[in-house]
Write a structure and sequence with these properties.
The protein is α/β, with parallel strands linked by helices. The protein folds into 2 domains: 176 residues, TIM Barrel (Alpha-Beta Barrel), CATH 3.20.20; 195 residues, no CATH class. The chain contains 17 helices and 13 strands. The strands form 2 sheets. Strands 7-8-9-10-12-11-13 form a 7-stranded mixed sheet.
């Protein structure tokens, strides 16, 4: 619930202090990459010295200051987060500072306290923290109407949150009528996730256990696909990739080989099998495709695991945070096929690869690509790098990263529809 101002700020540089551990910092940066905006809720002012606030690698995108902080601290925090506030157009980079809680039940004094703090700090990314008592909800609307950013706190129920939304709309409408720029008025809401999780759980329960069982059954059903669906369902003879090539070009891949299902030890490199061990391995199925011009070949495979959703999510997070999918020693093996353009597709011919840990199915999808003429590739690159704009590696120049990524995405996407296809014993 924010209006986001592209307002002026200052730039700050320094080093990251001692706020979080290295492991937590890695996780925070992953959250940021996924579109989540982590805030630091400081329990005491001493955590926020200049070295912390002005560090160029400061991992937080907002700060909640503790009570009792000086005006200098509030301004320093605002200035430290000003670059990200400006760069994001006000989407992130706010600093929440509290008003005196003694005025929580008195609308007049509470509004005066918010005005005083706003004027004293004089920073566009300040949001004044106001408790959502009866008086606080009223003051929230009044502050927004005057162009004062607000952090609405002590919101413990969906009913209270609805009141906050109503007050937000009221205040912003009044601000608009008075000619204020809504883009320069920030509004955020702080609430405990647990209270809303309880509401979500209650609503899900009201939907009925039947639907929940259906979702679990669908997840388990994917695990059985390797032996009760035809080969053409899992690996169709032709794959079409609209906009899947370099520069958005269309791609077409033709299947040239299919391997019998096998165990992980036979199909996977030992190091990759070890990395996947936490989710267990039931079976592996593989196929090899060539592009429409028969100039590239790609082996794609699916590891059907024994894990539940929680374990798959944990493995996905580990691959992401530790960068395991980019490690060359965890590249998937190829599936060469005698008498085809993939006959010479061996370990030395691998040019680009991807390993996708699915979170909505107990499956790991992998793909590895190379040249059909059997040439050795000295500098293989993960598909995420080989598909970047401006990449100059051998794999990137030949579009092999797009082949690996495009085929893996389409084979993985078929898992969602394969459970609804007629179940038969798979083709030999």
């Amino acid at each position: 619930m924010q209006s986001r101002p592209p307002c002026r700020s200052q730039k700050a540089h320094s080093r990251l202090g001692k706020v979080v551990s290295r492991e937590a910092e890695v996780l925070l940066r992953q959250l940021v990459a996924e579109g989540v905006s982590p805030w630091l809720a400081a329990s005491r002012s001493e955590q926020l010295d200049a070295a912390v606030l002005k560090a160029p690698d400061f991992p937080f995108q907002g700060v909640v200051l503790p009570p009792g902080g000086s005006g200098d601290l509030v301004r320093a925090a605002c200035d430290a987060l000003a670059p990200v506030f400006t760069t994001s157009g006000g989407a992130v980079g706010q600093v929440s500072a509290p008003v005196d809680p003694r005025y929580a039940e008195e609308p007049g004094p509470l509004l005066d306290a918010a005005r005083t703090l706003h004027r004293g700090v004089a920073r566009p990314n300040l949001v004044v923290r106001i408790p959502m008592t009866g008086a606080g909800v009223q003051v929230l609307a009044d502050c927004l109407a005057e162009g004062i950013g607000v952090d609405a706190t002590l919101v413990f129920s969906t009913e209270k949150y609805a009141e906050v939304l109503d007050a937000y709309v009221d205040g912003m409408e009044r601000a608009l009528i008075s000619g204020r720029r809504l883009a320069c008025i920030s509004a955020v809401t702080t609430f405990p996730v647990g209270a809303f999780e309880q509401e979500v759980d209650a609503r899900l329960e009201r939907l009925g256990a039947r639907e929940a069982r259906g979702r679990r059954d669908a997840y388990a059903g994917v695990r059985e696909l390797w032996h009760n669906r035809p080969v053409d369902t899992l690996f169709p003879p032709t794959l079409k990739g609209d906009d899947a090539g370099p520069g958005g070009a269309d791609r077409v891949w033709n299947r040239i080989a299919v391997a019998p299902d096998t165990d992980c030890a036979a199909a996977l490199d030992p190091l990759l099998a070890t990395a996947l061990r936490p989710v267990g391995c039931e079976r592996v199925v593989r196929a090899t495709y060539s592009d429409a011009t028969a100039s590239s070949v790609t082996t794609v495979g699916m590891v059907f695991t024994e894990a539940d959703g929680e374990a798959m999510l944990a493995l996905h997070n580990r691959f992401t945070t530790e960068g395991l999918g980019k490690r060359r020693d965890l590249m998937p093996r190829t599936l060469p096929a005698e008498g085809t353009v993939a006959e010479g597709f061996g370990s030395g011919q691998r040019a680009s690869w991807t390993v996708r840990i699915e979170t909505d199915a107990p499956v790991v999808v992998f793909a590895v690509s190379g040249f059909a003429d059997g040439r050795t590739v000295e500098d293989p690159r993960p598909a995420t790098e080989a598909t970047e704009a401006g990449a100059t590696s051998t794999a990137a120049q030949a579009g092999l990263g797009h082949d690996a990524q495009g085929i893996a995405e389409r084979i993985g996407g078929r898992l969602r529809t394969a459970t609804t296809a007629p179940a038969t014993e798979k083709d030999g």
